[in-house]
């Protein structure tokens, strides 16, 4: 069965520091991979997605993610975090039947 | 991006009553809508997929008689929690997509998420 693991429940980084959020997936074929961000009171917003091609994907708000098939990973990165990036981040894999399977999420705290 | 609204944003009801949650795509036609449930500090769990004009497809373990889903138009889907109990208290989120349902192609059409509805059953 498809699954997504986000090993870090909480991460705290200083404003201006770099960020990496980890995501590992389990999927039998070439995965469709997504990162979403959820702010309090807001719906999930798509940051970026990977379907095929270049394994380094650029997204909105300065985020990027790299698909590594050998490691079954799709880690999200940002070179310099802003206080407004504090939110919860979800990695997801596209599953059979056109569904999304989400990881448990990582809460990002940004300290000034 | 496209906008999806949910109403109400929060609701408190007594045990045994029914609650209806609306999900609307405001500026696009949603061929497919999805309903998720999110428990505190947990991920989103897909409850069901609904296509306009068709019966919803429920995930394993989701009681279709308890969680009634109607997708009567291309801009509106409703989730009715019937005879609600405290264990139904949760955060319910919908998403909408304008894509079709063939293979994984649908995933190439982005799902746009609503802000969620917090249901508390007393």
Keywords:
heterodimer, A: 112 residues, mainly beta, six-stranded mixed sheet, four-stranded antiparallel sheet, 12 strands, globular, B: 122 residues, seven-stranded mixed sheet, 49% strand
Short description:
With 112 residues, chain A is mainly beta.
List the SSEs and their pairings.
The complex is a heterodimer of chains A (112) and B (122).
Chain A: E1 3-5, E2 10-14, E3 19-21, E4 24-26, E5 32-38, E6 45-50, E7 56-58, E8 64-68, E9 73-78, E10 87-95, E11 99-102, E12 106-111
Parallel strand pairs in A: 2-12
Antiparallel strand pairs in A: 1-4, 3-9, 5-6, 5-10, 7-8, 8-9, 10-11, 10-12
Chain B: E1 4-7, E2 10-13, E3 19-25, E4 32-38, E5 44-51, E6 57-58, E7 67-73, E8 76-81, E9 90-97, E10 112-113, E11 117-121
Computed CA radius of gyration of chain A, to the nearest angstrom: 13 Å
> How much helix is in the residues of chain B?
under 10%
Shape of chain B: globular
**How many alpha or pi helices of chain A?**
0
Summarize the main sheet of chain B.
7 strands, mixed
Total of DSSP H or I helical runs spanning 4+ residues of chain B: 0
- In N-to-C order, the SSE pattern of chain A is EEEEEEEEEEEE
Structural class of chain B: mainly beta
Number of strand elements of chain B: 11
**What gap, in angstroms, lies between the N and C termini of chain A?**
41 Å
- Major pleated sheet of chain A: 6 strands, mixed
Taken in chain order, the helices and strands of chain B follow as EEEEEEEEEEE
Beta-strand portion of chain B reads over 45%
Which regions of chain B have little confidence, pLDDT < 50, spanning 5+ residues?
none
Radius of gyration of chain B: 14 Å
Average residue pLDDT of chain A? 92
How big a fraction of the residues of chain A is strand? Answer: over 45%
